[in-house]
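Project standup — Tuesday

K.O.: blocked on the structure for the chain from last sprint. Re-posting the sequence here as requested.
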Amino acid sequence: MSGTFFHKGISRFQAELFLTNAKDDGSFLVRDSESLPGAYVLCLLHQCKVHQYRIIPGPDGKLHVQSETGTIQRGYRDLTELVAEYIKKKEQNGLTCALIHPVPPERSTEDLEISDDEDDDDDDDQDFEVPPPAISPPATPNERKSNGQSDAGKVDLQKNFAKLDLKGCDAEFTKALKDYLEQGYKKDSVSMNVGDSELHEFTNLLEVASSGLRRELDGFMQKMYILNDFLKISGRRQSTAHDTKPRVAGPGLPNLLEQLTRVRTEVLTVQTKAQETIQLATLPSDYEYLDPSDGVYCENGITSGPFLASTYRPYIPQSKFEVKKLKKHGMSNKITLTVDLQNGKYSVLKQTGKESLGQKMISHDKILHLIKNTKEKCVLDVVLDGKKKQTYVFADPHIRENFCLQIRQMKNMHSTETDIDQISMFVGTWNMGDAALNQSLSTWLKCTGSGKCRDRVLGVIPHDLYVIGTQESSMTEKDWVNTLKAGLKACVLVDMELVEVCTLWGIRLAILIKPEYKHFISRIQRSSVRTGIANALGNKGAVAISFYFNGTSFCFINAHLTSGDERCSRRNQNYHDILKNLTLNLGQKHLNLFDLTSQFTHVFWLGDLNYRVEENIQNLLLKVQEKDIPYLIERDQLKRLQRQKVAFCGFDEAEITFLPTYRLERNTPGYRYAWKKIKRTGERINAPSWCDRVLWKSYPGVFIENVAYGSSEAILSSDHRPVFSSFNVGISSEFAHQTRGSLAEMAPVKILFHSIEAQVKTCCKQYFQLVFHSICLQDVYKSQSNTSFQDNRTGFYTVPVWHACNLPEMKPLFGDQDFLEEQHILIAVIPKDGDNESYGECVLSLKGMFSNQPEDFEYILLHQGEEAGRIKGKMHLVTKGTRFSTRKSPYSLIAFDTEYQDPEMFISGTPKVESRPAFSQGTKASSFVVKQPSVNTKPPVRMTQSTVGELSTQEILRASKVDGRAPQPLPSGPSSPPVPAPRKPYMGQTGLLQGSQRLPSRQGPPERAPPIPPKHRPSVTESSTGTTYDGLRRPANVEEWLAQLNLSCYEQNFLSNGWDDLLYLNKITIFDLNKIGIEIPAHQQKVLRSVKELNKVERDNAYMTLRSTGREEDGTFSSNTRSVQSMSEPSTPVEYHVLERSLSYTESSSSSITSEIPDQSVYNVIEAESVYQEIEINTVDEWLDSLRLSCYKDAFKKDGWDDINLLHELRMSDLNTMGIVNSNDRALIVASIQDLKHC
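H.V.: unblocked you, prediction finished:
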């Protein structure tokens, strides 16, 4: 009876769908529980809502129904008895309503098929035009006896012998065959009748037949050993070993077969050795290769023993790129860029016609960013140290991409960072077709063939990780691993270490890694799932391996799904079965609410997935011949199912640019498809298809980049072509990036959710809760149940809503921003009163979520590989500290022009501030009035929280930069809004925000002090509530001062030792700090520097006030001091001058320009003087005169900058062209142009 209501393996959503389609109240079914193995769930439809009850096994082994009021006491032996009893009870069963209509499971025609050709399209190539004739069963002993040892069999052999063509056979074999027919056959018959199955006479016949082969094999092996000696390179030890003396095959058939095996092995060995020899022979004469006898192998600062060492480092040839360098006004020069990966630099060779004008070498550490132009696919901006930008035009986008990848590889190879930020990874799959390997694997492992291949130069460099999946493999596990190691050693000259290997029948997954990275691997697990006939056979199924590489988790699944064009739904069910079983066996136990794809940072699914191209065979063959790949992709089953969100939802796949990899004629070059197959059941069509695929699913915000996806055309032993893919993957740290000292000063961080709205695919009317998991959280957080629902008009959905009062406030373990921005929060939607089954899960990235204001997020909810709805809301990370991300990852090197700040408008590490126009527009459209600053004439006062003097020039210079974050605006009144910090782009798209450019400071005194730029700000009066130093509000007491420095942990150290007032701090020394228990050098320097800044602010304020009254401490100023405002005008706003440091505005990057950092020594001699008269500016000359830069008038006119209305378009490169190199003059011009812009 259970067959009428029990649905094995279906999900919660599928159960609800079956019941809602039934429509009748009382419809019910039973499914497996998703949260408790061995339990079931009774689903009952009542008033268009599905009610669920868990059926759990008790201690007595019987089944009990767990209802809302508790567990019913009576137990039942099985589901059939339980359901029958509840049907009898009708309305008195304790459930919502009576069980009336059982909903039977759907059975497709595929499930009803019981065919022994389950793997009909995976057999060996047997393309017969006519089915082979049936073979009669052998005669029984009684039959043979009844025939009286008749010569019926001999007569048949004599007839066959008469038909044989023996012209090509030697006389010895012909005579032996006749002798066997006359005498040997009878002797073997007698032996068979007495139970001897050796067939001695026939064995002698084989010996005679193979006498010539034996001689040929011995001669062939002699030739192979000669080739081995020929391929030796003197003075260099090679990895491939061989016997020094050829072995001659002994007598007998077994020895002959052994010699045949040696022949195959020796051919592959010679091929491998030839590859290695040719690579070594191409090395330059001065190339320093490693000798294993040295005993130590060093690479990238990591030392390992000689048993892990590669014999040689691969020699990397140089690459040349012919490009055009763009200049001003559209002009260009032909240039040759030569990338030298081995030495970590690239050269720029200028050419004019056939002549070379000079070569410039650029080191890898001088390259800051590579900016791809999105409109012009061949244009690339190379940003060098010092904000120098060079624009190149490549021949095509692929060449530009290769150049970018080589530059990034160069920076990675020569990086001095101790942490691993990125690895390269090979992922390949191949259905071997149960055939013996008879060709080298080098083209596959080097990612060369058809499709998107790896760059020729990068192909020499080994990947850091190799993930290789095979299906229908006839080799043993040990032999296959040894073959892979030997193949990698031959093609990339590296001894790889095995991480793990997992095998299920012919399905195998092997993972190998560079020896120097082996110790970064941890928490290795493996598992397998069978999906063959009745889910019991392992001819179909999957194997999986998971591990952690530092803080990044990986899971690799190699699957062989059901074959056949028409078995698409079976393949989909295979996918769900594999995912469900691997979640139970391979998943992390504390994350049982989430399926496998949400438990790991990266999940790669590879293998012979067997999805086909649906098209008429003749039209399909025509499109294959025309290489119309887009047409075929549109008809690919897997792509269609992904669009419909039926299978592999959320998985990505690189663009397919290679021809179908199945079903091809074996050992035949090119693409000859064996699409027709004659079997016992008739003719079968196997359409050319992309059965072999590599897909992946990664957490949001992480870096992963596919650089190759194609198939090898040189390995022909199977009817499948091997498929390769290459990835660059970001690696996160397992721990916070800070040292022990800096961890102590971290400010507390809070994770705040303001609202969440989930669109859940269900017809169950109930309340829901949210569960939050993350490795950065100490505990698992759970929200309160939602208190409201949003109106839903999309059908099969319910939309619970949570507000801030329903959501938990979370506190991460560490406050380090670099660490937290690499973390993710797993969110699951569960019912408030249920069996803890998930209704949908998502992964929330914390990257870019440090903000003062809540940030929006929206993700798809997934459950067991199916889309279960959507979730959106607002959240942010809040901190009181001032530490911001400073760690730069190598994959941020490359960005698009739409995702970065122009280097001429932004100096990395400097803030953005709100622009304040210092020009008031005059009566004419082209005239401007310059307001020069005035000076406060009030007497000096001590700066406290309630009485604040003017800010000094040095103080403003310090305040304009706070760890690369935009400072708060200067106090101009209680209503001044704060300037929010700029948002940081996602990983890999950071543009120039993570650079570390620093302009060189000027050496020696300047030629002349620049005038005060025409810029002003509103004054700060005594009524101001505070001031700013180092970007912070000036503290009122020691406690507040330590809090601003993120050193509140030392509060008791100061107060208990008498340092309880800011007035006393100017006397503190490093000895005092040691005495009160502050022993960390970084903290000591931080305290002393802050004390110095506090004292400097007060001295500068006193000095400025004295100067404003025309007096110094020892007398009056000289007669050069101009008149100041009368002190009898208290109502006039006090104006002061602010020298901004590296100002960057938030306007469009195409028109903005940034000032350089002026030498601070210049401003030490600037007098804080005078109130200037308003100056009306109508021309560029008048503008330069007002800036005291008349010496540049000719330069501006010569370059066409003679219209004051066009100055806002002036860029830093234009100043370079005009020859204005003085950093202070450039800074003054830029600041003034910014003011002109905003008038």
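K.O.: great, moving the ticket to review. Residues 752 and 809 are 5 Å apart (CA to CA). The chain has 29 helices and 47 strands.
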